[in-house]
Amino acid sequence: MTPAARLVETLARRGWTIGVAESLTGGLVAASLVDVPGASRVLRGGVVAYATDLKASVLGVDPELLVRRGAVDPDVAAQMAAGVVRVLHADVGVATTGVAGPDPQDGHPPGLVHVAVRTPESTAGRTLHLPGGRDAVRRASAHAALVLALRLVEDDEDDEDGGEDGGAGPSA
Question: What percent of the residues of the chain are helix, what percent strand, and what percent coil, each to the nearest 5?
Answer without folding.
Answer: 45, 20, 35
